[in-house]
Amino acid sequence: MHVLIVGGGVVGLACAHALADRGAEVTVCEAGTLGGGSTGRAAGGIRTQFSTRVNVELSLASVPVWESFADEFGVDIDYRRSGYLFLARTEETAAAFRENVAMQTDAGAPSRVLSPAEAAEYLPELRTESFVAATFSAADGVADPHSAVQGYSDAVRAASVDVRTKTPVTDLARVGDGGGSVDAGATPDAGGWRAETPDGPIDADAVVVAAGAWSDRVAALAGVDLPLAPRRRQIAVVEPEGDLPADAPLTIDLDTGAYFRPEREGTAIVGGHFSETDPDVDPDRFDESMDVEWAVEATERADDAAAYFGPETRIRNGWAGLYAVTPDHHAILDEAAPGLVVAAGFSGHGFQHAPATGEAVADLCLGEDACEVDVSALSLDRFESGETLRERNVA
Ligand SMILES: Cc1cc2nc3c(=O)[nH]c(=O)nc-3n(C[C@H](O)[C@H](O)[C@H](O)COP(=O)(O)OP(=O)(O)OC[C@H]3O[C@@H](n4cnc5c(N)ncnc54)[C@H](O)[C@@H]3O)c2cc1C
């Protein structure tokens, strides 16, 4: 069984790893460099605090991989289990928090509802008067996406995966259903796919579309429509005026969308999307730099939540990347056409879900049932049938 993976971000590499581990022959085609898409621009957050069961389960199945990554992959990903703190300013948000925590704990996550005073034990400068409730999970944390890409790429190369960078897939055609030929070793009569690249065609029994914010374009090459919107999101690295503890949780002020977390050497990351407008952007031509006005707003909003980011806070640098957003803010994990598996549309949480996604994708490609998460709720046809999900914990 030969599987071609289109996209060498953390999702494509995690899929390659799971497939190679199960004995498949794997080729990864990456248009640019490994991790050079959204993965290299992520905040590295890993959380079990989602509002839908499938997202919680994808996290719970992924966390053990992040925890043991240094041992298993030989690369230190700077995994810090300092938790996530969600903050509610309104009773409506607090009510949703209570429902979420009931579901999360039922799924096995150690989440708790906290009063603002209890939340201040995790974040001493929290402006408790601005909030009515919070939630915290000690299972949550952060890791460095660049190191994760390094670990996965070392592992897949060691497992003889053929990793081709600077190799865009430019066309995809179905072959072998009584028509053209497929690779030796393919399942007889099963048919397969031929991918065109500048270095010549590649034949495979199955193709995985793991091209992040480009996935709708890649799927369109195979005649499959994906409802996917590339949306620009920014991060600023700042030197906070106050002394943000190095083990402070990643904190999300859910009603404003502002978030922050400690970074290395006394710096912090601040983020969030605050504009009324949220246009689709061209993933090949968007502004990858940080807007200074946005960074000032993000810093002020962070300071509205906790008094670390006063006027002496220095904005050091920052960047913009892309969320690949679906209409219901959930990924698409599905065999969208025979032998064409989609792993895309993670809507801002694809880094953390990559390990479990790899297992789910390996199941879909190989017709196995090894992944502990039932991802059937993430099928592509939910957008037609109307059985979409609703993720409320989005920042
Ligand atoms: C500012 C920001 C903060 C974020 N914070 C978090 C966070 O805290 N936690 C979290 O879990 N997630 C976060 N995310 C989301 C996360 O970055 C993505 O969900 C994740 O990286 C998606 O990985 P991927 O491999 O699917 O996509 P990508 O990393 O974008 O990889 C896709 C790859 O496909 C390649 N490609 C495109 N077209 C082709 C083609 N035709 N042929 C071959 N290759 C092609 C691209 O070059 C790219 O390298 C954040 C994102 C942003 C922008």
Describe this structure in words.
The strands form four sheets. An eight-stranded mixed beta sheet has the order 5-6-4-14-15-16-13-17, sandwiched between helices. Strands 8-2-1-12-19-18 form a six-stranded mixed beta sheet. A three-stranded antiparallel beta sheet has the order 9-10-11. The two termini are 39 Å apart. It is built from ten helices and 19 strands. The protein is globular. It has two domains: 2-44 and 146-227 and 328-385, FAD/NAD(P)-binding domain (3-Layer(bba) Sandwich), CATH 3.50.50; 81-140 and 229-325, D-Amino Acid Oxidase, subunit A, domain 2 (D-Amino Acid Oxidase, Chain A, domain 2, 2-Layer Sandwich), CATH 3.30.9. By secondary structure, it is an alpha/beta fold. The model is unreliable at 179-189 (pLDDT under 50). It has helices at residues 10-21, 53-67, 69-73, 91-107, 116-119, 145-158, 215-221, 292-305, 350-366, 382-385, and strands at residues 2-6, 25-29, 45-46, 84-88, 111-114, 133-137, 141-142, 162-164, 171-175, 192-196, 202-204, 206-209, 229-239, 250-253, 258-262, 268-271, 314-325, 332-337, 340-344. Residues 6-12, 29-32, 36-39, 41-45, 168-169, 210-214, 218, 233, 235, 321-323, 346, 348-352 line the site of flavin-adenine dinucleotide (FAD).
